[in-house]
Amino acid sequence: MRALNFFFIFLICLALVLFSIENTEQTTVQIIKGVQLKAPLCVELIVATGLGAILAWLFSLWSRMQRTITSRQELRQVRQKEQQIQELQQDIERYKAEVEGKQPLLESAELTSLETATTEVKAAEMTAN
After folding, report:
1. CB count, 10 Å around CB of 27?
2. Three-class SS of residue 23?
3. Is 34 left (phi over 0), alpha (psi -120 to 50) or beta?
4. With contact defined as beta carbons under 8 Å apart, do 78 and 66 qualify?
5. Pick from 69, 29, 73: which is nearest to 51 by CA?
6. Which of 1, 66, 79, 90 yields a CA-CA distance of 20 to 30 A from 96?
C-alpha cells in the first residue's frame, strides 16, 4: 500500500513539475484586499500544492487522533465487559459449589418428606378402613 501511495505522489509531483516548466510567465495573486504578490505561475502552483499537501497531512493527523481516541474508549469498554464476564463466571462457580454443598441436605429432606408422605398415606388408609 505504501508503494502505491508513493507511486501516486510521485506522479502528481511529476505532473506538477512538467506543468510548472511550461508556465513560467509572471502573474499577480491577490492574497487579501490590498495585498498583491507578483511571481512566476510555476512558483505559485508549487506553493499552492505544498499548502494543499500540508493541509491534507494535518487533516490525516486529526483523523488519526480521533480514531485513536475512539479505539481507546472501545478498548476500555471491552476490558470492562471482560471484567464483568469474569466476575459473573466466578459467581457461577461459587453458586455451583454452594449447591453441591447443600445437595446432601436436599436429598435427606426429600427422603424425610417422602417418608412423611408414606406414613400419612398409610394412616389415611387405616382411618378409611
Report:
1. 14
2. coil
3. left
4. no
5. 29
6. 79
Please list the ranges in the chain whose pLDDT falls under 70.
Answer: 104-115, 117-118, 121, 125, 128-129
- The residue type found at 4 is L
Specify the 3-state DSSP secondary structure of 32.
strand
Paired strand residues for 28: 38
Q: What is the CA radius of gyration of the chain?
A: 41
In terms of DSSP H, where are the helices of 23-40?
none
Could you read off the pLDDT of 52-72 as tens digits, one per residue?
Answer: 889 999 999 999 999 999 999
Q: Is 1 helix (H, G, I), strand (E, B) or coil?
A: coil
| pLDDT, position 58 | 94
If one counts every other C-beta atom within 10 angstroms of the C-beta of residue 84, the result is 10
Cell numbers for 76: 476500555
pLDDT at 76: 96
Say if residues 36 and 30 touch (Cβ distance below 8 Å).
yes
Phi, then psi, of 24 in degrees rounded to 5: -110, 5
How many CB atoms lie under 10 A from the CB of residue 114? 10
pTM above 0.70, yes or no: no
